[in-house]
């Protein structure tokens, strides 16, 4: 629960998890008393939650509260003592001063792929609504183009999900090596009594479709975004274009870059 020292001993290379923690701790330095925070989801964001919890318990950040981007983050934040505000309890949204979250990929223009953890919709709502969005990554997340290292997720309504998958495939018709599929989880992972794989279900009771590109997305990202969002059945996609205001990168050589 509590966080250890931010830097590994100088005698060995830091692990990826240590780099994630370094980036997370650096981001928490931006937090000021009284702020309402967007609380991200994932293993990097988890280090920020731990750090915030430590500082709150030490009385260093009076008045700080958070809006969680997932059920998992909500539980983690509650465990470490971060006061929570609901997103849209009555349909509204708290004023968010600063969001801190990890990313799956960061391109040279600070566009992101997020949502391989499945929380992209609430992340995009909360992080898009705040004044400042600080992204925390280790250097392995830096890519020349989005979609280089794995899936670009798309959240869709379960109704007709395979039909929606077909419509997404049409957007990329003829693109060499493109493929898309429904994200599944092993039998029983959603708590159901089944012996076969089941669709991954998001916190919003939706499904995730995964798009794969050979060597990343080479097209016009805003145009691709628009075309995906125009498909009835698509709720949101995991390309976060022009949203990050700061990216903090922890490098293996021990340096930390803060890119605005
Ligand atoms: C979850 C996310 C995460 O921020 C992203 O997957 C990065 O995760 P991690 O910090 O564990 O590498 O978008 O939906």
Automatic annotation (TrEMBL):
Keyword tags: Isomerase
Pfam families in the record: Rib_5-P_isom_A
InterPro entries: NagB/RpiA_transferase-like (IPR037171), Ribose-5P_isomerase (IPR050262), Ribose5P_isomerase_typA_subgr (IPR020672), Ribose5P_isomerase_type_A (IPR004788)
Pathway the protein contributes to: Carbohydrate degradation; pentose phosphate pathway; D-ribose 5-phosphate from D-ribulose 5-phosphate (non-oxidative stage): step 1/1
Transmembrane segments: none
GO terms for MF: ribose-5-phosphate isomerase activity
Catalytic activity: aldehydo-D-ribose 5-phosphate = D-ribulose 5-phosphate
Keyword match Isomerase: yes
GO biological process: pentose-phosphate shunt, non-oxidative branch
EC number, as in UniProt: 5.3.1.6
Superkingdom classification of source: Eukaryota
Protein family (similarity comment): Belongs to the ribose 5-phosphate isomerase family.
Protein name: ribose-5-phosphate isomerase
Organism field: Paspalum notatum var. saurae
